[in-house]
Every structure is written in C-alpha cells, then in structure tokens.
Amino acid sequence: MRRFLPTSLAAQIVLGVLLSLVIAQILTAVILFDAHRANMYNSAQWQQVKRTVTLAKELAITPTFYHPAMVRAASMSRAKYTINLHPILTDKQNTSSLKTLLIRRVEKNMGPEFHGRVRARMGTSNWRTRNWGDSCPEDHLNNDGDCEVDRMIRKRGDTKFIVMSVQLPNSTWLNLTAEAPNPEPLAAQQTVIFLLIASALVMLAIVFLVRRMTRPLKQLSSASNRLGRGEDVEPLPETGPDDIRRATRAFNQMNERINRFVADRTNMLAALTHDLRTPITTLRLRIELLPDSSEKEHLLDTLDEMQQMAEATLSFARESAIKEPSRRVDINALTDSICEDLKDIGMDVSFTEGPPNISNCRPVSLRRALRNLIENAVKYGHRAEVSMNTSKTSSIIVINDNGPGMDEKDMERVFEPFVRLEQSRNRETGGIGLGMAIARNIIHAHGGKISLSNRPEGGLQIKVTLPL
C-alpha cells in the first residue's frame, strides 16, 4: 500500500488535505440532507394541520350536501381527507405530548366548539407492526378488506406522517391520513453542487499555496545535489515562508564558505609548490658544482623526485582551481573514446558498451580520472577490460585487469596522495603517486564512488559509480 502513496511533500500535503476535505464534505452533506429532510417534514406536517383546521371550519358552516365534494377537492396525492362516522384515531392513540402541544393549539385556533373533538398523531410507523389499535372501523375498510390507514403506511414502509381526526358539528368525523413528502431532488442537487464547487475552490487554493511553498524546497534540493557534484552554484533567491528562507540563507552561506575554503586551500598549495621551485633549482646548481661521485648522482635523483612531485602538485592545484562547467554527456561515448585513444597508442584495452545513458558531468575532469584508472590497469595488470552498465539512479563503469591484484589493506591507502605500491624509484614504472588520488577526488566531486576488489579469477576490479 505504501508504494502507491505519493513521495513528494507537495503531493502528500495535497492528498492529506483532499482526504480531510472529502470526509468533511461528506459529513456536511449528511448533516445538511438530514436537516433539510427534518425541516421539510416538520413544515409539511404543520401545513397539513393548518389545511385541516381551515377545512374543518369551512365544513362546519357548509351544508352536509357539499361535504363530499369539498373533501375530494382538498385531498391530494399524499394527503387524503375522508368523512366517516368514526374517527380514524382512538383515545389511546392520542398521545399526551401531542395533546398538550398540537391538539391544544388546534383547538384554540378552531374555537371552543371544537374543544375535545380533535385527535392527532405525528411520527414514524412501520406497516409490519400495526400500532393504530387492534381493530379498524368498518367505514375505514377498503374493497380488499384492508384498513385505509395501514394501506397508506404499507406504500412507503417507515414513513414520517400525520393522522388527524376532527369531529364536525353534525357528529361526523373529518379524517386525514398524510404521507411525508419526498425530499426535493433539486435541493439535494443544489447542495451537492455547492459542496463540489466549494471543494474545488479550496483544492485550487491549496494546490497553489503548496506549490508556492515547495518550489523553494525543490530549488534548494537541486542546488544541494549540484553542489555535491562539485558544480558552481549561484546563490539561491530567498523566497517562500520564513522557515524556508532561513534554510535557503543557510545554504547560501554554506556554499560561500565552502568555495572560499577550497579556493584558499588550493591557492595555498599552489603557492607552496611554486615557491619550492626556487630552492630546488638553487640546490641543483650547487650540486652540479660538486665533483662527480655516486653521492652526487643520488642527490640529483632526489632533487629530480622532489621537482617531479612539486610539478605534479602544482599541476593538480592549477587544474583544481579551474571551474569546468557541467553539461549533459553520454558516458558510453566518453568511455569509448578514452579506450580508442589508448588503443591508438598501443595499449591493450577493450570496451563493452552498455545501455545508453546521459549524465550531467564535467567531461574534461571525468575523462582525466577514467584515463588514469585505465592506464593503471594496463600498466600493472597488462590488460584493461572496460564495461558499462546502468541502474535506475547511476552509471556503473567496471575496469578489470589481469594483474596480480592488490592486498586488501592497501585498497584504501592507494588513494592517498604520493602513495606508491610499486617500491622501485623508477618514475616510469612507479609514478608520483597522485594518479589514484586525483581520480578519486574527481569522481567524488561528481557525487560518485570508486571501489577496488580482487577478482576470483585473478586481477583487480575497479568499480566507478556515477549518479545519473
């Protein structure tokens, strides 16, 4: 279930608000419909009472001959009037609550001549359990032998309604059996439309506000990712709520401090290595003036080593100070071109192309790192087999060689500056010891990882992982 839920902050906020709004609107609709239905029922009941009072007054002053026509004219589809010799309600069915509330108001409105002649009942009944008395008056039986009141109740099952009996001056009874009206569909539709429009407006406002609040977070996330890859990141605009503004301000300050720190360290390293040139040159001149001897040769070799280290360090510092812009590059094509270049100079290199993938990188720096790793594989392992693969989030470059492998305790130490596992003093075979350090720094600057492992069939495997 969790995998179907949204992962972004904006989507989670919108989903949470949407669910809350839907539940609130459903509860509101239920309450409104119930209130509307209750109001409609109460209004219909009292309307029927007033109609009955008016009809009873008119019948009291009208000749009996006209009574059937008047009753038929007053009857409606859900309210039927009849004139019978007996009341439709007995005294037992005249509840005390309605006697004190409804009947007294009716009797007061109709006049003293109707005092004690009104019977009424409102409420809900179920046709399965007749509660109108044990018997039905004969003049209330229809042609099928059913009681007229029970017939109307059976039509609708559980129904709110009103039943009244009013005794006229001629001793006959005006009886009313009325069903509750159906809820007006138009009112329900209007309520639903109102709730839908209100929900849509609220959701539009929520989506607008959430997008406005989370836009700075997306910018901050993107800038942090680019900063982790070693790219130049311009100061972000401080927009949005105060909390997000403070986070953006802190990121801008951190970015400025990191750039200043790296620049100071690089400049200091370049200045030191540059200043070493003068004493090295002075020592070389003085040693050249010494008589030829084996000690003189050793001193010159040491100076050569110092000068190569200084030149390599200075070159590294200069390249680090150059801010190469990032761009979208096909890593397959980049790696293939490196392997082809090395083949052209006689190195035993093969490349297996992987799925096409485009990554954001600094191609010159990345090219230098991969070239160092492949050249080392050929130099110490006689052959480099380069392959490419991809995952959902990264590009994977694997470099295998056929050499003797490496002691596991040296697999981390080899990335330290000026560390050489080859113990000879020959710079052609042992190098300066900066190649692996430079390669790892470049890969880390791209937000990637590099790892070494011994192959079961022999040789060393270098695995470079770069984010897409």
- Mean pLDDT across all amino acids: 77
| Class by SSE composition | alpha+beta
Helix content class: 40-55%
Distance between the first and last residues' Cα: 28 Å
- The overall number of domains is 3
**SSE order in H/E notation?**
HHEHEHEEHHHEHEEHEEHHEE
Query: Strand order within the widest sheet?
Result: 6-8-9-11-10
- If helices are DSSP runs of H or I spanning 4 or more residues, what is the number of helices? 11
Unreliably modeled segments: 125-135, 137-146, 148-159
Shape: rod-shaped
Percent strand equals 15-25%
Tell me the radius of gyration: 48 Å
Major pleated sheet = 5 strands, mixed
Number of beta strands:
11
Chain-wise SSE layout:
Blueprint: H1 9-60, H2 67-74, E1 79-84, H3 96-110, E2 118-125, H4 148-156, E3 159-167, E4 173-179, H5 185-228, H6 242-288, H7 294-321, E5 327-330, H8 331-344, E6 349-352, E7 358-361, H9 363-381, E8 384-390, E9 394-401, H10 427-430, H11 435-445, E10 449-454, E11 460-467
Parallel strand pairs: 6-8
Antiparallel strand pairs: 1-4, 2-3, 3-4, 5-7, 8-9, 9-11, 10-11
Helix pairs in contact: 1-5, 5-6, 6-7, 8-9, 9-11
